[in-house]
UniProtKB/TrEMBL annotation:
Record keywords: Flavoprotein, FMN, Oxidoreductase, Pyrimidine biosynthesis
Cofactor(s) needed: FMN
Protein name: Diguanylate cyclase
Domain spans labelled Dihydroorotate dehydrogenase catalytic: 91-287
Pathway(s) where this gene product acts: Pyrimidine metabolism; UMP biosynthesis via de novo pathway
GO biological process, any: 'de novo' UMP biosynthetic process
GO cellular component: cytoplasm
Gene3D superfamilies: Aldolase class I (3.20.20.70)
InterPro entries reported in the protein's UniProt record: Aldolase_TIM, DHO_dehydrogenase, Dihydroorotate_DH_1_2, Dihydroorotate_DH_cat
Any Pfam family: DHO_dh
Amino acid sequence: MQTLQTKYAGLTLRNPIIIGSSGLTNTVDKIKELERAGAGAVVLKSLFEEQILMQSEHLLKEAESYPEAYDYVREYVKSNDIKSYIDLISDAKKYTSIPIIASINCYEKGSWADFAQRIEFAGADAIEINILKISTDIEEKPGEYEQLHIDILKEVKSKVKIPVTLKLGQRFSNIVGVVNQLKANQVDGVVLFNRFYQPDIDIHKMQFTSGTVFSCSSDFSNTIRWIGIVSGKVPNLNLAASTGIHEPETVIKAILAGASAVEICSILYQHGNGIISQMLTVLEEWMTEHGFSSIDAFKGILNFKNVPDQSYYERVQFMKYFSNRD
């Protein structure tokens, strides 16, 4: 009997389609719609550390004659934002049956570990940590950025018993090494990759502006490369593929490369929730055609370890491709 069920980060999902953290998952009604559309799990819209700090600063400017109020205002804003987030988790668990993964978006160590405890108590099935930071400090030593991920993971893991995953960006000198260190520190899953804010410049107004918001299909080539490499080099670790998952076939490709699940977002904004059932139909038909009864039966069979020619994942392929072109 065929099943689309998959294991990811200690969770059992009815299928490998996870809805990524976004405005698509910021209300219970939206989550219920995603569940009806066939989603295997959702990652709630992130609570951003910067968002809390900016709101605190705004209120403090209005009361700048009271500098002693700084700590009080900052804590007040944070407490209210966290309460709303906790309520979302509780309500989502009450009215839906798919796994609810909370999301913390931070850029430094701090009180997020204590917040993680409240997330667990509210009923979240897991926590996904996003560390959105670009190193711009000339005095920062090489390796500090990578160590930040390890430190935050250890801090959160020390406070909760539910699974903790990390969603990584692409700006590492050694992605495999970082993932291996995360595994050594008991991470329950890793998502490859986070998509950073894309800046642009308006040449008429001569100012920075927002670039392309959504990912595109071409982004998937880098995702699948690293899913395949990491899956082959760091075994027995659940991976989720993210960024560039736009066609139904990319779900199959990600699993063949070693992913246990995929996170989708941009494609839902562009084409609606109906794409979920399309992806699942294509996946199920492909499995039937090739005689696979489960996700585990073909997961990772084309990862870095299992392909006969590992140059497919490396720069040699670039030379092979262009060697016959003028």
